[in-house]
Structure formats: C-alpha cells, structure tokens
Amino acid sequence: MRTTAFIPATMSVSARHVSFTHRDASQPALQDVSFDLAPGTRTVIIGPNGAGKSSLLALLAGKRLISNADLRINGHDVFRNTAGTGATYLGTEWAMNPVVRGDIVVSAFLDSVGGYRHKERRDTLLDILDVDLTWRMNCVSDGERRRIQLVFGLMVPYDVLLLDEVTVDLDVLVRDDLLKFLKADSEARGATILYATHIFDDGLNFFPTHIAHMSFGRLVSPPTQWPLEPNSELGLKFGSASLYQVALQWLKEDREYRRELEATGLKLRGARRDQTVPDDSETFYRKYDYSH
Fold it and tell me: What is the 3-state secondary structure (H, E, C) of the chain?
C-alpha cells in the first residue's frame, strides 16, 4: 500500500495518489491523481467524456470506496466521515431516481427534506431557478426537475460543493443567474466549489478562480489560477484566450493523443473500418438465428 503524505487541514479538498478502476473495466478511470483546493476557491474541471471527472467527484462525495488513496474534505477522510465533511454533491443521476418522479407537489417535497429550516435561502433559490411550488414532480420536464434538484441541494449551506454536469439542462438565463449566486455565495462564506462541465460559453469566464485539465484518468494540469497569469506556463501558452478557447485547445490535444494511441493498433472509439460486414441483411442477421 502506498504511504500518503501529510495533508494540511487548512485545505478544503485534498487528494493524494487517487487511482480507481470500475468493476470489469480494462482501463483505470483515475490514475494517481493528487491536488489541493484552498477554501473559497472555485475550480472548473475540463476534460472530454470519459476523462475521469465524474469518477473523481463521486469518490470525493464518498459514493465509492477505495483503500489505497487519501481523500479529505476539511481534513476529514471522505470514506470514513462523510457526514462531517460539510460537502454537498449534485450529480445527474438524481433526476432518474423513482422517488423524485413520484406524484408529489414541489412544496411538499422540499418541506419533507427540511426546506422550512432554511426558508430564506430556499426562497432565494426558488426565485433564481424560477421554480413553481405547485408543480408536481411527476409532471415536470427534465429541465424543471433539474431546477428542483438544485433548490433541494443548495438550500442547506455547504462548505464544499461538488457539481457534476448539473447545469446541462438549464436554459442560459437561469444558468447565468445560478452561477452568479454560487460565485457570490462562495465569496461571502468562503465555500469551495469543484465543478465539472462541458459548457464553456462566455458566461462561464467570470466564475472560476482556478481551472484544471483531466484526460484519460490523469490530472494533466492541476488546479491553476484563472485568469491565467501572463508569465505562467499556461499563460505563455494561451495568452489572453477565453476559457472556451482554452477548453477547445485542451480537448483537441486530448483527441490527438487518443489518435496517436490508436495508430499503435489500439482502436478506442469510432468505426472499425477494417472489419468485413456482409452486404445483405439476411447474411448479417443469420448469426442471431438461434432456431437451430
């Protein structure tokens, strides 16, 4: 087992030598990931689909257990003291839970999870996310259900917020208002935010204090100050580029790296043009005939 280094309790989020492989997977989802996030920082994780962003956030939320890594939030081991970390995790799978698709009025649903205890903050979020308390959970659209999730998850104050693609269903106006709220909340309370997203329009430029790049389970660029410092390594590479331009370049580099791997004979994605496919459907589907 790897010996982990001392992690200062002053860091909001700390990771040391995090490696993780999903059951039955041939490739690891995370490979030796280490980083620290200071209190009050807002870090956007950039990376292609399958880079390991969701796996990292799920581990930080204590949703999966691994034994050969040290993951801490506010100095607490996330695998042994999840309740004491002060962390809130919001991911896309929430909207698929049958419980939140039942025939229940939104006001009753929010009260059932303690919304009445945080009325002022809850009401602020209801206004920002434009949620109707008379909606029924089984009748709302995907975007409206996502808004309800965000009220549900954000109405209780947090120390660390882990966001995994939860703004993907929001229209651009609501998303902009939400990001402004999260930024102001982070600055006022010193809350730390780690946000994985694939939406890099101009509205995201103002939000992060740091950006990070993940690819093939590796942390290619650890959390780096944003806007980029002109004389830093990334500052010299990207100049005054927008966050969209930085993300686009990193994703292009990821794709080229994958193609280099494929050139060695390992085909990862896309069509298999070297395979012979029958021209007629009868021959093609014959292999599925189990009548003999």
Answer: CCCCCCCCCCCCEEEEEEEECCCCCCCCCEEEEEEEECCCCEEEEECCCCCCHHHHHHHHCCCCCCCCCEEEECCEECCCCHHHCCEEEECHHHHHCHHHHCCCEHHHHHHHCCHHHHHHHHHHHHHHCCCCCCCECCCCCHHHHHHHHHHHHHCCCCCEEEEECCCCCCCHHHHHHHHHHHHHHHHHHCCEEEEECCCCCHHHCCCCCEEEEEECCEEEEEEEECCCCCCCHHHHHHCCCCHHHHHHHHHHHHHHHHHHHHHCCCCCCCCCCCCCCCCCHHHHHHHHCCCC
